[in-house]
Every structure is written in C-alpha cells, then in structure tokens.
Amino acid sequence: MRRSVLLVPVADGGLWSVRSGGVRWICGFTDQTALARFALRHASGDQPMDYAALLGARIVDEIVPALGEPAGLAVDIATEDGSMFFPPVVGIVPAAVAVDAGAGADAGAGADAGAGAGADADTKGARA
After folding, report:
1. Residue 22 has pLDDT above 70, yes or no
2. Is the pTM of this model over 0.85?
C-alpha cells in the first residue's frame, strides 16, 4: 500500500472521505476502473470525478496526521470482495496519531469498521 499510487477522489477542494465507526476513512482506488465503479454512485451529474494520484505512504504519513482525528485509508470500497482497510493503528499510521499507541496493542491489528451503507460522506479537513 505504501508504494502504490492511489487515485483519491477530490470534492469541494478536499479529498473525499467518509466517517464510519468513529474513524474518518480517506477513500483511495487502485485504478481507474475501481474509481469509476465508485463514481457511478457518488459523482454528481455528468461531470467526471476529479481525483488526485497520491502514494499510499503520503496519505498515511502526512495527510492522516494532519486531520486531527482518528483517520485511516479505505481502498477500493466499491469493489465487491476487493476492499482493503488500513486503520489508524501503530504500524500503519504514525504512532503519534494511532488510536492504539501506548495501549500495547498488536501492530498488525485490523479494524472492524467499514465505509459502506450508513457512512457519512464528508470532505472537510481532508486536504492534500
């Protein structure tokens, strides 16, 4: 994930994200086909969805800490059986913003949160 270039939708001057399970999830896509599946449900009108191409490392090392709230990376959320979630835990995001920092949690811990139905779309603060 860190070395991959991800396509992150841009809306209202910020990166597209959703809140679910107390976490802001920045949504990234591995290719234009995955982004297009997402855009079919979330794009407004006939306008193509704008996006930024960002390294996964930049998202989790720079953008997530700048948000000032628990945040992680959701990849390919519109791909059935292909979604990946990188939660705000030690080993994925910097320890200073990890929700499990100092809790003695396993660095490989996963998340049980998703960005599916019921998640609130929100782009505030998710700036590249």
Report:
1. yes
2. no
